[in-house]
Amino acid sequence: REMPDSTTEDSVAVALLPSLRHATNSSSQVAIVGSNLCPVESLDYEIAENDFFKQDWRARSKTQIFQYVFMKWLLCFFVGIIVSLIGFTNNLAVENLAGVKFVVTSNMMLAGRYSMGFFVFTVTNLLLTLFASVITAFVAPAAAGSGIPEVKAYLNGIIGNISAVSGSLLIGKAGPMVHTGACVASILGQGGSKRYGLTWRWLRYFNNDRDRRDLVTCGSAAGIAASFRAPVGGVLFALEEMSSWWRSALLWRIFFSTAVVAIVLRALIDVCLSGKCGLFGKGGLIVFDVYSENASYHLGDVLPVLLLGFVGGILGSIYNFLLEKVLRAYNYIYEKGVAWKIILACAISIFTSCLLFGLPFLASCQPCPADALEECPTIGRSGNFKKYQCPPGHYNDLASLIFNTNDDAIKNLFSKNTDFEFHYLSVLVFFITCFFLSILSYGIVAPAGLFVPVIVTGASYGRFVGMLLGSKNLNDGLYAVLGAASFLGGSMRMTVSLCVILLELTNNLLLLPMMMVVLLISKTVADAFNANIYNLIMKIKGFPYLHSHVEPYMRQLTVGDVVTGPLQVFKGIEKIETIVHVLKTTNHNGFPVVDGPPLAPASVLYGLILRDHILTLLKKRVFLSSPVAFDSNTLAQFKADEFAKKGSGRGDRIEDVELSEEELNMYLDLHPFSNASPYTVLETMSLAKALVLFREVGLRHILVIPKSSNRPPLVGILTRHDFMPEHILGLRPTLSRSRWKRLRIRLPFLS
Hints:
Elements: E1 30-33, E2 36-39, H1 51-58, H2 62-110, H3 114-138, H4 148-155, H5 158-166, H6 174-189, E3 192-193, E4 198-199, H7 209-228, H8 231-242, H9 248-276, H10 302-334, H11 338-358, E5 366-367, E6 394-395, H12 397-402, H13 406-414, H14 424-442, H15 451-469, H16 476-492, H17 496-506, H18 512-527, H19 533-541, E7 570-571, E8 573-575, H20 576-585, E9 590-595, E10 604-610, H21 611-620, H22 632-635, H23 661-664, E11 667-669, E12 680-682, H24 687-697, E13 702-705, E14 716-718, H25 725-731
Parallel strand pairs: 7-9, 12-13
Antiparallel strand pairs: 1-2, 3-4, 5-6, 8-11, 9-10, 13-14
């Protein structure tokens, strides 16, 4: 699927095409965050090793260094505690809100008041959805959708989610929990939020994007662990899907955070099992611990499993295709205003309520089995035997699946010894309903996850296949588990993390071989049609995400072929007026610092200084009347905290700095605050090789230097947008024929 890593092949080191160094980088620098169009920019994962930073680090005592390391672990602990409490509260609220709604509606139906039951069910769902959409649209637009693409793009809204899930929309909690975990980690990493007056100075130890990124990775893993009580799955999810940059120290801290989540959730669930949490603990728990019997299978059972994975891959790719089309259609509607967003959410809610309430009437009533392991029919609680409109002694199998929370539906599908409790037509209707409702529900302006809808859809598909094929060794519950795995693999294209998450959900290690086979086949088949769902969503939103594979045309270009201009350069000791003019006329975030006579015999590259650091210096107003270097007494006026990375929100702007005419004619020594060891590459390096360096190290800027010494010391600067296909192919349209052609099978309905 991907080209081999460029470090293992000979890279082209000669420019094959003429240079366009004076062209303008016109690639998009805005993206859809949640439901709003916002400017985006890269983060400074590279540590600026300037003289001021080195002096500050050398001045730290052993106690301060120990405190720095201790704070990393302490904040990981806080992330685990807070995210686990949010996850528990989320599930507790959903189970009680949705449970009360279903109980009240069921009681009205038992009394023969079907019209009133439908009215209460529909109005309740509509109010919950309206509340979720209103607070998302007006209070937290970035919370719309899953949140996983946003966090994934960052690493390369919980109340709204409770209302939306409780409103019977076919959406999940995992995506918003990942987003919530990342937000919690981000707030802790920057020492709180100035916007809401919640700041803690003792937490401000992470003064750079690298440390904060590590903490956000811990938060995203903790979000998955809190959603499914799958600590190891959360670690692997962060490794496989979220993070573009990994190291062993980060692995230990993530594992620590997810372990804290698992322990806290286990303690809280034990409390709820005693009946102190209302309906929570009697219905769906965070974990679907439903399949604990020993599963025995033989070689003859492999063929049906292979078929399950193959068809699951096709269904997953169709699901991704349709979801992409629906999201594009929703974006067109959303351009008309916020009112249309809320109207669409309410319309989807009413349509969903009509389907969920009306479809069970199409199913025939089934007599209660004599050997049922629970009371039949189920009245006033969750279970496999919903009475609905059936006479005494009978149950409605479709209502047991569709007139229920997603968690309880998954439990019913996964449950063992239930091969004859569901009619195959009911399971088929449930699968089709979940397939299309989850697509329609995802794009509304509310926090909505994809994990649980895909699991419940895949489980119904797997159960239907199991009922059709039949097996002496594999019962329908096991087919449901494998169907969920195949549909997850076909849609999300993850393997290792999904395998472990499902194993932790079902509490059965004996499923491992079958699950591995299903995931590998479904992912391979689906990759022949389109990309994974999160990459498709990131593309729709416009995130400048750098993928791990290298396009072939990048080997035909050198970095000197794509650098754009004009190049803005500062002298080591620069006039304030010049600095202010450059900052006001450009949006660049990094500027090369070049020394010339009399500081150097010839022009020489000294380093790179960031816009934020320049703004800090201008606001400090420690200027020089003549172009001379800062002395030690002048440097003592600065503190390291002043150059710390700002938190989220609007940063400093040059328009906010007011300087007098006298100050504009003074000078500023940039040497002590410039990164004297930035990453540099020769202009003859292949673009493919530079991309690997840029992505793997997590850079924001790469300085391009000339091959020969008799030229200016700098050719240009590479940023993220210089590696984007839209920018490169805009400069070289003829290279589009040499793009990497992944195997694509085109079907008429997928064209």
